[in-house]
């Protein structure tokens, strides 16, 4: 059975979508079959992987208006597919609140293809709302990208509380797949201190690989390409390749 990972951080701008795209791409290049799920109405993952026409997509899937085989698209990377999102997904959050089993819609929708992929990677919105709760309920493990700044540490505490509630009420098998640092600037004392404190507390839950600030990582989504295709020799590319290898190793 394939592994389902969800990328979660209620703070925006931490590299969550960038990480989902690039880890997924390097997993695929390593020979794994990977499905990306864009579960954010901003649809940044969809555009960042080169999918322009996002309908039918994940909204149509969870609303029952399109079967899963009609919403999965191929990407420019072999063995890497995506279920895209559109702005319609923002309305789904309101619709789901009023329905029974509102936090299990994504899990049920993905069940028919779970065994078709080695990894399913879900990119959630920067919040702890109903869409993110659906992602957590559907996943085996949580991958937490963390920017190296003070407020990120406060947000991590809140996220851990949410994960514990999900484990208690919806998904007892959910675990912390790992925490990794993004946008790291080794010149700043704060960044180094955040890495030290989080690593000391969470120990082996923290990935060894740290993603540095890298302009090529910022440029790649505007071309609809993962960094492995846009600039495979860049520092950011080498870092994400290493991180993907770690994720595969932990998931095997």
From TrEMBL:
Check the UniProt entry and state the signal peptide residues, or none.
Answer: none
Q: Which InterPro entries match?
A: AAA_dom, DNA_Partitioning_ATPase, P-loop_NTPase
- All residue ranges annotated as the AAA domain in the record: 3-176
Coiled coil residues, start to end? none
State a single Pfam family of this protein: AAA_31
PANTHER family the UniProt entry points to: P-LOOP CONTAINING NUCLEOSIDE TRIPHOSPHATE HYDROLASE, PARA FAMILY PROTEIN CT_582
Q: What is this protein called?
A: ParA family protein
- What taxonomic classification does the UniProt entry list for its organism? Bacteria, Pseudomonadati, Spirochaetota, Spirochaetia, Spirochaetales
């Amino acid at each position: 059975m394939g592994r389902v990972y969800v990328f979660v951080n209620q703070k925006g701008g931490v590299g969550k979508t960038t990480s989902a795209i690039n880890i997924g791409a390097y997993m695929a290049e390593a020979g794994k079959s990977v499905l990306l799920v864009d579960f954010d109405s901003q649809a940044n993952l969809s555009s960042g992987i080169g999918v322009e026409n996002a309908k039918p997509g994940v909204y149509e899937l969870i609303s029952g208006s399109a079967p899963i085989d009609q919403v999965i698209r191929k990407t420019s990377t072999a063995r890497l597919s995506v279920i895209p999102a559109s702005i319609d997904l923002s309305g789904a959050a309101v619709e789901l609140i009023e329905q029974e089993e509102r936090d299990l819609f994504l899990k049920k929708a993905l069940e028919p293809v779970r065994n078709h992929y080695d990894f399913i990677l879900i990119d959630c919105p920067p919040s702890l709302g109903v869409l993110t709760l659906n992602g957590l309920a559907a996943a085996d493990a949580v991958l937490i990208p963390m920017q190296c700044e003070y407020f990120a540490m406060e947000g991590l505490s809140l996220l851990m509380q949410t994960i514990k509630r999900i484990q208690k009420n919806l998904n007892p098998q959910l675990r912390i797949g790992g925490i990794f640092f993004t946008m790291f600037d080794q010149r700043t004392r704060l960044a180094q201190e955040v890495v030290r404190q989080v690593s000391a507390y969470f120990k082996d839950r923290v990935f060894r690989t740290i993603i540095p600030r890298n302009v090529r990582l910022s440029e790649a989504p505007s071309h609809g390409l993962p960094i492995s295709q846009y600039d495979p020799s860049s520092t950011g590319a080498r870092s994400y390749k290493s991180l993907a290898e770690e994720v595969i190793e932990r998931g095997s």
